[in-house]
Amino acid sequence: MRKIYSLRKIALGAGGEYVLGARDLRTHACYLIYGELAPGERGRKVCPGVGHEEILLAVKGSLSLSAENEEIRLEEGEALHFQEEETVFLANPGQEKSVYILAGGHSGRAH
């Protein structure tokens, strides 16, 4: 039987974010991150790492992303692709909780 993961519940118990990956799935091929940001919360780091790529989806509310020379705003339902070792910081500019999903996997380059 397949296991159902209560990601919201687990993430809230783990400080607002949880990585469903190798530990739970027993595979290194892919992972999924569920996260929530409270209104005004900032500084959540996103960095896929060597050999990985990620797609960030704003599920609820909006997200503000800051990188070295760039500011991006994602609205609910919008997604953005990150390549390995790109680092951005997430913030919730809104008055309500923001929910996001990061889906990642191997880029084809060894890590």
Any overview of this molecule?
This protein has 111 residues and is mostly beta strands. The model has no long low-confidence stretch (mean pLDDT 92). Strand 5 and strand 6 form a beta hairpin. The strands form two sheets. The protein has a five-stranded antiparallel beta sheet with strand order 1-2-9-4-7. It is globular, with a radius of gyration of 14 Å. The protein contains two helices and nine strands. The longest helix is centred in the N-terminal third of the chain and has 7 residues. The protein starts with 6 loop residues before the first helix and ends in a 5-residue tail after the last strand. Helices cover 10% and strands 46% of the residues. The chain has two domains: 36 residues, no CATH class; 58 residues, no CATH class.
Keywords:
10% helix, 4-stranded antiparallel sheet, mainly beta, 111 residues, 46% strand, 5-stranded antiparallel sheet, 2 helices
Give the strand tally.
9
How much of the residues is beta strand, in percent?
over 45%
Gross morphology: globular
Compute the number of helices: 2
Radius of gyration: 14 Å
Q: Which spans have pLDDT < 50 for at least 5 consecutive residues? A: none
State the end-to-end CA separation: 32 Å
Q: How many domains?
A: 2
| Mean pLDDT metric | 92
The description of the largest β-sheet is:
5 strands, antiparallel
Order of helices and strands: HEHEEEEEEEE
Percent in helix: under 10%
Strand order of the largest sheet: 1-2-9-4-7
Query: What structural category characterises the helix and strand content?
Result: mainly beta
